[in-house]
Amino acid sequence: MALQSRMTVYVAIAGVFALMGAIVFYASLDNAQLEQAEIELFSVELINVDNVNNKAKFDVTFLVKNPSEKAFTVGVIDYQLFANGIELGSGQYSAMDVALPGRAVFSSGDQIPLSSIFVLTKSEIDPEIYEDMINERIDSFSAEGLLTTQTSWSTIDKEFSTGF
What angle do CA 124, 126, 131 make, to 5 degrees? Predict the structure, then answer.
């Protein structure tokens, strides 16, 4: 009798592990399509200059595209922003505090712009670059970072580098 009880427990534990493995396998089927997500730096626009605190706010917009058949959402875009090849600092677009069903859904073929506020502090960069930024005299912008795409089953972090 004791042997049969032990065997039942072992079979139940093996069944739980098999079920967990099947869930992980099923979730990984989305990974290849999530990796196809494309991101490009679309615009960097001056919003406001605070001359008292020597800070400027910029609207940084990324255009995210879904060339795959699988719908996804974007949780986070972590990025380093560069102007004329000089690093300005880091920024982030985040929708992690929004439930997955409440986020913008990227269906097949969709392109959606996602914006974040980037704050530039004069004391943290070269004053000449700061003046060029607030007077809109920058020729090129680029960004490098990490794009986090999600489905209900899977999450992928993809590195990117883009500019204009």
Answer: 105
